[in-house]
Amino acid sequence: MVEYNAPKRDYDFLLNEVLNVIPTIQKLGFSEFDKEFLSMLTEGWGEHVKEVWHPINQLGDREGLEFNNGEITMPKEFKDAYRESVDAGWLSTSCKPEHGGMGVPILFQSVIWAEFGTSANMALSVLPALTIGVYDILAEHGEQELVNYFAKNLASGEWAGTMCLTEPHAGTDLGIISTKAVPQDDGTYLVTGTKIFITYGEHDLTENIVHLVLAKTPNSPEGTKGISLFLVPKFMPSEWKSEGLAGMTDELNSEHNGVTCSGSEEKMGVHASPTCVMNFDQSVGWRVGDLYSGMPLMFEMMNRERLATGMMGIGLAEIAYQNALAWAKERRQGRDLKGVQEPNELADNILVHPDVRRMLLVAKVNNEGCRALAAWTGLLLDQRRSDDKEEAEMANSLVALFTPIVKAHFTDLGCETVSTCMQVMGGAGYCTEYGVEQFYRDVRISKIWEGTNGIQALDLAGRKVTEKLGKNLRYILWPLTDFINENKSNPQMTEFNKPLHQGVRGLQQLTLQMIAEGQSNPHFLAAGATDYCRYFGNVLLAYMWARIAKVCLDKQDDQYYVAKLASARFFFKRIFPETLGLAAKIQAGHKTLMDYPLEMM
Ligand SMILES: Cc1cc2nc3c(=O)[nH]c(=O)nc-3n(C[C@H](O)[C@H](O)[C@H](O)COP(=O)(O)OP(=O)(O)OC[C@H]3O[C@@H](n4cnc5c(N)ncnc54)[C@H](O)[C@@H]3O)c2cc1C
């Protein structure tokens, strides 16, 4: 029996005691949003996914979906669960109230919602995550007429959204896409091309599907500079005859808009999440945003989705940990090396073994550290909209810097953690009944989609740290340095502060070296990017753990805080030292890679 309990207490602790988010959020205009409401939302969503999404997760994996004659049929249980969530209003928490949403901070939807949803049912959770991404782009950049017609049904989840970037010959390299959009006299475009790997490109959970498609207009500039973004619905309004959308009802044409699905991928995991080949054949679409602004707009959506993908790493690592721990508590094998613990039993519980504890604690501490950094990132997403220019600039810079780290480091750790949890369970971990085997397959895609982790690392090292003349980097070095200085004379903090200080100094040196050597030889920077991203991720987690430790030092009469302090110690002694090895690998440079005889590989 696979179990799941949403880590509500952890969010209460992080948001209120470590990050103290409520005053910041209230200043941003959410004046009614208080601690009690946040706690109620967190609890309510945790219960909802536990009762409605989690029980059908294994069924979705087992039964998957049915592709037949261009149509995809989802398991009935998924339809019922999706409908229940739409009716309860759980899919539109961050959408604007004028579109029927709850209008709560993005922090809730992008972090708490995303983690709990993924833990309970990753295959189902990606659909609303994509839909809200489409809604956000539309609400922010769409013409009023488009917003009026599409936003409400997207916000509620009555209609679903997708993002269509990838083509058979163009994955990472989107500059070479060949989908065309030809302008029409009425202001619409006719979109033609084939997109592959489109998540929820086709399904029967909603009446309509709204695709955001990257395409090129005739005579557009070469490469990514010539790409624009188009909204292409599966079905058009039934009364539409090219005179605009004003006054159209939600009644849809029964003929599709030239949008067909010609295939659905068989794949390793997320079996109940359709992955479609989508064909657009003279499909009517509308441009969203300016001509040739397709890439920046899609990046805006992808950045949201990248954080959501990072949360998939935590979400699956969390449920894997919970089940591995529950299993370990029951399992007896061998004896404690320091002496028999339970002589009346055939064997001691496996938690007496240091190696089993090592595995479980690496999982627990990584999950909790990532959750803390995610919570901070979620708050920054809201702060980007602050009227205070300085605050908005700081938040924009940090979100830009953190996004590739959250995406790549959290999903790398997520995959490692789920694997480790399987190891805790021995042979049972490998068997379907216990659930972790499914999580292992499901979590793996998170390192690939939304831009591979290798590309995230290049984005961080090659762009984010240097752009705006290093301003993004300065915005993180300032609070880090302040924290280190503030705690220098506190002996209780030395065990956390000292390694943090060393890590930050190392980060500064490595960054300078990457930039300096990267200028004369880009292979140097590219060769070290993945290790640099992990190093940076470790420093950010170290900062979160040091802040957590500081909060907990004076509260040692409650086991929750005792455990948090122990987790912080574990992080600094047994996880953070990996930065030393990472630094050595970064400094080794590119030669051992690029000088290797290619013909012998
Ligand atoms: C289940 C699933 C769902 C998906 N959902 C969607 C979706 O909804 N919408 C959508 O548009 N796409 C979707 N994708 C596509 C996904 O985003 C791409 O698969 C991913 O971005 C990688 O592209 P690719 O597969 O073409 O790999 P490639 O681009 O061919 O990359 C192959 C390898 O080369 C590396 N590489 C490539 N270029 C460089 C470079 N310049 N420098 C260094 N390394 C490089 C990559 O990191 C990777 O390791 C989905 C894919 C899957 C499998």
**Broad shape:** globular
Overall pLDDT: 96
From the N-terminal CA to the C-terminal CA, the straight-line distance is: 45 Å
Given helix and strand content, the structural type is: alpha+beta
pLDDT < 50 runs, ≥5 residues: none
What is the rounded Rg? 25 Å
Tell me the number of strands.
11
Count every helix, treating DSSP H or I runs of 4 or more residues as helices: 19
Fraction of helical residues: 55-70%
- What percent of residues are in strands? 5-15%
Reported for the largest beta sheet, the result is:
7 strands, mixed
Order of helices and strands: HHHHEEHHHEEEEEEEEEHHHHHHHHHHHH
Small molecules bound in the structure, each named once: flavin-adenine dinucleotide
List keywords for this structure.
binds flavin-adenine dinucleotide, globular, alpha+beta, Butyryl-Coa Dehydrogenase, subunit A, domain 1, 11 strands, seven-stranded mixed β-sheet, two-stranded antiparallel sheet, 601 residues
Layout of strands and helices, then pairs:
Blueprint: H1 8-18, H2 21-27, H3 35-53, H4 57-63, E1 66-68, E2 71-73, H5 76-88, H6 106-141, H7 144-156, E3 160-164, E4 180-183, E5 189-199, E6 209-216, E7 227-233, E8 235-237, E9 252-256, E10 259-264, E11 275-288, H8 294-330, H9 354-383, H10 389-424, H11 426-430, H12 436-443, H13 453-464, H14 467-486, H15 494-520, H16 522-552, H17 559-575, H18 578-587, H19 591-594
Helix pairs in contact: 1-3, 1-9, 3-6, 6-7, 6-8, 6-9, 8-9, 8-10, 8-12, 9-10, 9-16, 9-17, 10-12, 10-13, 10-14, 10-16, 13-16, 14-15, 15-16, 15-18, 16-17, 16-18
Bound molecules: flavin-adenine dinucleotide.
